Amino acid sequence: MEQRRPGTTEGELLEVLSGYPLFRGVPRESLRALIHMGVERKCPAGRFLFLEGDPAEGVYLLLEGYVKVVQTDVSGQEVVAQVAGPGEPLGLIAMFADSPYPASAQAVSPARALWLPGEALRGFLLRHPEVALRLLRVLAERLHETHRRLLEVSILRVERRLARVLVRLASRLGQRTEEGIAVAMPLSREELAELCGTRLHTVSRLLNRWQRAGWVRLGRRRIVLREPHALVALAEELEPREPPLALTGRKVGEGKTVDDRRGTRPGRTE
Amino acid sequence: MEQRRPGTTEGELLEVLSGYPLFRGVPRESLRALIHMGVERKCPAGRFLFLEGDPAEGVYLLLEGYVKVVQTDVSGQEVVAQVAGPGEPLGLIAMFADSPYPASAQAVSPARALWLPGEALRGFLLRHPEVALRLLRVLAERLHETHRRLLEVSILRVERRLARVLVRLASRLGQRTEEGIAVAMPLSREELAELCGTRLHTVSRLLNRWQRAGWVRLGRRRIVLREPHALVALAEELEPREPPLALTGRKVGEGKTVDDRRGTRPGRTE
DNA sequence: CGTACGTTTGAGTAGTATCAAGAGCCGTGG
DNA sequence: CCACGGCTCTTGATACTACTCAAACGTACG
Fold this sequence. Notes:
The structure is a homodimer. The first copy, chain A, is α+β, with helices and mostly antiparallel strands. Helix content of chain A is 40%, strand content 20%. Chain A is built from 9 helices and 12 strands. Chain A has helices spanning 10-19, 28-37, 92-97, 118-127, 129-155, 158-173, 189-196, 200-212, 228-236, and strands at 39-43, 48-50, 58-64, 67-72, 78-84, 89-90, 104-107, 111-117, 174-176, 181-183, 216-219, 222-225. The longest helix of chain A is centred in the middle third of the chain and has 27 residues, at 129-155. Chain A is globular, with a radius of gyration of 22 Å. Chain B binds a DNA duplex through residues 157-159, 188-190, 198-202, 204-205, 208, 218, 220-221, 246-249, 266-268. Chains A, B: InterPro entries: cNMP-bd_dom, cNMP-bd_dom_sf, Env_Response_Regulators, HTH_CRP, RmlC-like_jellyroll, WH-like_DNA-bd_sf, WH_DNA-bd_sf.
């Protein structure tokens, strides 16, 4: 939305970009030329960098802040396709598939990005095929990641999916605090739900159960992992887990006192 | 598995490859050199071209037949990540992300593929960056497709997902017959289930209901769409549909007679 | 200080998975 | 050629996860 006039000098941009793995080994002159064709854009929290369906004329290189990329269903339901932090390129699909943006990018915290016009980037890649290969790597890794998520949503229970999402967020965007590992990106329960293909109610219930168990610390748009290993166990464990119980109703400790030990599937013995 | 000795001459291969969009405009000399570094491999139905976890030393270019790419969960559950036909490259993720194969590729019908060693392809791409750009397009499109599937599995009911899968298969691999549009690729109910993130039982029930409605014709590993538009309606329709009803028990026409008309969401008017 | 948003929690139930048989089709070997 | 064993598919009964609807609470913010 805000356009032009950096807030950063071209020289600084040059420093930042040349620090990214994507551009390693690229002559500064070429980089400078590329930057020169781009525009820096600021984007306050909550605002969209681009909208699903918009014609795409280039890509964004995220310089600062966090952005979530969401796909919206006709019914208004959303799914978070990707969460991006500094250094990550956005809008690649539209750029290379030569289509409108297939999803919207919304700043979750104040963000800054360098916009690069498609033609400029294309020319740059033709002159620097090694960068094209690195972009191929980026896309390959995202495809891999998306396949993994597809697998999870297809065959895992929500509980395990949520645990995995938290573990992943913590490892990608986590910061150590004295309480535990905090997720740096501010995400609402609803956004978390959109990350694991469920509803905010379900996320809320699960998180609170885990909080009661002392595994996490909850706040508004804030989650701290106090016992990451417990979540990892939940996320990966092959065998039926024990601590948390049913989703609705009874809290930990209550419930039909009979057959509280899982593990031997009830009603399977006879 | 079977190695070397084409079954096709190098000249024929050259013809085939230069017909693929991927290699359009590439000088025949370069192509010939590339082919020369590759190996043709045959793969009977049911056999794997490569296995998840195998170290990847190159990519496959599918020349003939159909291949399904499956990811397997620790518990043995499978999800079909992709179905590929002639002309499609396989193993791209492993190649560019520089990792072992993240999924297994199994021939669904007898297949033939050209194996290209990674280093050869990499060198080729550095010399022909325009081909790298086309590969970027391939990956971008697959990523787009996978995002769409993720959205669907996350928020759509099985019924609608299955309808979409069928419509998509019909449009990508369909062949007109006097009965309707037949899906060219032989897929079992279970494989269909793995394509839409459900179980074979659910697929079977839905398909049979649709067969009773006259929308499809079923066979062993075979499906013919007789009323594609009905399926498209089911797949896209925004409003609650009418024909098919609950999954278990009661057949079409039975059921609690009260409140059978859907459409006005109960309890939302006040 | 009120309003709005993010969140928690409850009750009820639809939609699917799961468990359990059984029926048809197919290639194989007697 | 026919019987057999193995797949693939169909169908029923039952369990249960996670969604939907509904309401209330707390906190941030104007």
